[in-house]
Amino acid sequence: MFQNIGELLVLFWRTLQALPQTWRQRRKVYDQLFEIGNASLLMACILSLFIGGVIALQTGPLLAERGLATLIGSVVGNSMCKELAPVMMSILIAGRIGSAMAAEIGSMRVYQEIDALRTMNINPVHYLVLPRLVAISCALPILVIFSIQVGWMGGALVSVFNDRIGVSFTAFFNNLRETVDLAKIMNGLFKSFVFAVVIGTVSCHQGLQTIGGPRGIGRSVTKAVVNSIVLILILDYFVTRFLMYFD
Amino acid sequence: MNTATPTRQGVRVTVRGLRRSFDGQPVLKGLNFEVERGEIFVVMGPSGSGKSVLLKHIIGLETPDAGEILIEGESIQSPGVMDKYRMAMVFQSGALFNSLTVGENVGLYLTEHQLKSPDEIARIVKEKLEIVGLKGQEDRYPSDLSGGMKKRVAIARALVIEPQLILYDEPTSELDPVIAATIGEEILKLNRRIHVTSIVVTHDRDLAFGIADRIALMNDGQILAVGPPEELKNNPHPRIQEFLTAKFNHNMERTSL
Predict the structure, then answer these.
(1) Domain that holds residue A142
(2) pTM over cut 0.90
(3) How high is the pLDDT of residue B238?
(4) Is the dihedral of CA A208, A212, A214, A216 positive or negative?
(5) Is residue A12 in a domain?
(6) How far apart are CA B217 and CA B224, in angstroms?
(7) How far apart are CA B39 and CA B216, in angstroms?
(8) CA distances from B56 to A220, B49, B51, B53, B90 (A)
(9) Is B97 close to A119, i.e. CB distance below 8 A?
(10) Would you say residue A17 lies in a domain?
(11) Between the CA of residue A72 and those of A58, A172, A177, what are the distances in Å?
(12) How many domains does chain A have?
């Protein structure tokens, strides 16, 4: 485990050192951005709509029973932007994009394409890891912005149309505006940026470590997704704790 | 393998006492040989004898446990030596990038190192593809190509580097005899045209005896003999004769079911 963490940090450091090369790799960054957005936007919206809806459904009646139904906007607003949108989107992206990254790089490793790059003096970190890491670090926070807004809409719809809550759109969003400010949204975006770096680094690392044939690729994909999710959930606590100092 | 000024001259390669083990299992057991400038040097031997591992050491993809590889007398482990000489490798599978077109694959080295303008790269790609008999195939994807075409694209990609040393890993494996002969001719033509030093790893006897200036026969991580094809044919070593004259046995006893 410690060896893995060490290798991850080395790969991340090498990618950071390669950052000045980003402009040269811009075409690949655009391709990856398109890949991530295109593959995930619809799914992100559907997921967020239902997450927002279910928070409202779970907490709304409890609040309504105590005469606090108007606070539902605050509950949905805060939980979406500070916690649920960044974490759920990161898990979704780890499953959809992290797995694709590990599989693509893993198959390139198995079929000697990475060796071919090295014989042409092309650094695989510059050519393969950098564009993916830059793209996912930009794309995930953008997806989270969408997710937050759609989640709020989901929460609002349930709050309005569920008889046990019965709050108007105006009351929902007025309450949301009172407690959610830009700092809280930035809090969620910062988290998602950290998680994006984790997903990109873990997935590319697993891809580069692939050995064997198709079975090896399968193993790398599974490890990339599982390790990413575990790290996201562990880091979520520590990042949340860290961000509390700025509240 | 670098961006040095192109010259049309092969390089001398010396392998001294090369040893390598994987998980305690010795794969290369002290190899010694020298390849002259502009020579076609074929390394033959049965599967698993360590031929491909040897190539990976020469191109710098693997690091030896002991021994050294010298290019023009300079160890490839010394800083800057791998950048000083232009080397290319044609992989057994071709190792083409499936997400890139044939043209992008061939021009990848020039594009990534920004050595030429896009127009110039397109011209060079066209020229190299023409050399390997694949004129007008720039826009196709590797998945649309046959095994022989993929190998030829891989050779074209190697040529773009203007190499002083080309390493071929099983260039005729999985190919029919006609395409295999074409690949052999390509290797020979390139050698005559640009005087590149070529090291070819194969277990294809026809290819080896058709193109080699000298042949090294490897077995179990060691070199049994090195010499011109005719000399090797007459070598009395039983393992060499067994490998060179192996034929299908029609008279073997049938086992009853």
Answers:
(1) 25-242
(2) no
(3) 81
(4) negative
(5) no
(6) 6
(7) 13
(8) 24, 14, 9, 5, 11
(9) no
(10) no
(11) 10, 7, 12
(12) 1
Q: Which residues numbered 1-60 in B keep a CB inside 8 Å of some CB on A?
A: 1-3, 56, 59-60
Residue B97 has what DSSP assignment? -
Q: Over B170-192, what HEC string results? A: CCCCCCCHHHHHHHHHHHHHHHH
Tell me, yes or no, whether A165 lies in a domain: yes
Whether residue A19 is contained in a domain is answered as no
Helices B118-131/B102-112 angle, 10° precision: 130
At B187, is the pLDDT very low, low, confident or very high (cuts 50, 70, 90)? confident
Does any CB of chain A come closer than 8 Å to the CB of residue B84? no
Mean pLDDT of A218-229: 95
Chain B residues inside the 8 Å CB shell of A111: 93, 95
Q: Distance (Å, rounded) from C-alpha B1 to C-alpha B61?
A: 12
ipTM for the complex shown = 0.82
Rounded Cα distance between A20 and B225, Å, is 51
Cα-Cα end-to-end distance for chain B: 57
Q: Which tens digits make up the pLDDT trace of B8-29?
A: 578 999 999 999 999 889 999 9
Residue B112 has its nearest CB partner, among A113, A115, A122, at A122
Q: Which residues contact B9 (CB under 8 A, 6 or more apart)?
A: B37, B38, B164, B195
B233 CA: distance to closest CA in chain A (Å)? 34
